[in-house]
Amino acid sequence: MAQLQLVHAGRTDVGIVRSNNQDAYLIDEATQLYVVCDGVGGRNGGEEASRIACEFIGTRMREYEQELRLFSERKGSLTRRMIGSIVENAVSDASGAIRTYSQEHPELSGMATTVCLLLVAGQRAFVAHVGDSRVYLVRHKTMHLLTEDHSLMNDLRRRGRDPDGSQLGAAYQGALTRALGVLNTARVDLLDLELLAGDRIVLCSDGVHGVVGDNAMQAIAPHADPATAAHMFIDSALQNGAPDNATVVVVDVQEDADGDRSSRVRRRLEALQAVSMFRYLPYPDLIRVASIAKEVKVAAGTAIFHEDDVGESLFVILDGRAGVLKRGSQIAELGLGAHFGEMSLIERAPRSAGIVANSQLEALVIERDAFFSLLREEVTAVKLLWGMVRMLNARLRKTSDELTLMKTGQA
Known about the structure:
Blueprint: E1 6-13, E2 23-28, E3 33-40, H1 45-62, H2 65-72, H3 80-104, E4 112-121, E5 124-130, E6 134-139, E7 142-145, H4 152-158, H5 167-172, E8 189-194, E9 200-204, H6 206-212, H7 214-220, H8 226-239, E10 246-253, H9 261-273, H10 283-292, E11 294-298, E12 303-305, E13 313-319, E14 322-326, E15 329-334, E16 339-340, E17 354-357, E18 361-367, H11 368-375, H12 378-407
Antiparallel strand pairs: 1-10, 2-3, 3-4, 4-5, 5-8, 6-7, 6-9, 9-10, 11-18, 12-17, 13-16, 13-18, 14-15, 14-17
Helix pairs in contact: 1-3, 6-8, 9-10
């Protein structure tokens, strides 16, 4: 695993209405860390909060510069999970640093800030955020939102209420449900994903995404070099009145030496999307599922599991063929894209059939414990549970149809 080549640019503007800039951003090439903060609070409070958050997180991550470099070289002791914890703790602890500063300076009471960040380590991106600053992934010219706003407006929409254009919406405009500086710690949303050559990551404050709008963001996002794209985002916000400070950081992933890696990542995502419970997941949530899946190779003739074994894993075939065995006899053969064992993600129960590799076989494996770790994430849990309901409903319909055929003597 080697370091990816990155090209980046950042820009911030006070906007047309505000008198001071409470946004801040950080680009640290040594640690490949990119941060955007949007301060909230009267007078200088927001400006101080965003500055403290950027400096605190940057300083904390520089403590791990050598370890991160070793991770990129497949050396050292850091794992993906450990890096995720380091990032999460750095962001959460920044909340305490802001709160301590505000207690020491009573005139800044109530100071707080949003934060979104990107850390690139090896070929992986670690994305974290608190508040309504956003991180987007631009892949194959399509823009995907990787973060979920921690705001009252977004909570209302998720609950099926549309506050736009109403007095309720006006009252809640800009109100956050999470921010750094409110408490000594903060709940941090974290995502890690594999980066591909040609990817672009866009980090921005709501003075960009909330003013430019989704359609214009999508139109600008895939084009030009990072510096030009950053200017285009800010200029678009200014042309739309820029009622708030506007900040954006654009990071491009350059070509790497492994030309086959993009196709392998695409193959994994397409295979997972073929599984019924994952079929309707938005792209960022599909990435979350892919992050817990492991690739395994199984030699021809090897039993993957036996009938009546207690199952704890879902398998998705990437290449090769597998036989389904019942009482020692093959009753079906599965090929590319087929999946089996999904019910074991729901409960630990004996397998209803055995599976053997009829040829050299490659498969994705999702373990039950890793799957349940995703269910603990608020952002993804509801979507995964809804996918499981769809899957169970399809199974019930199939069973009902088979019973009906048996009763009518047609089976």
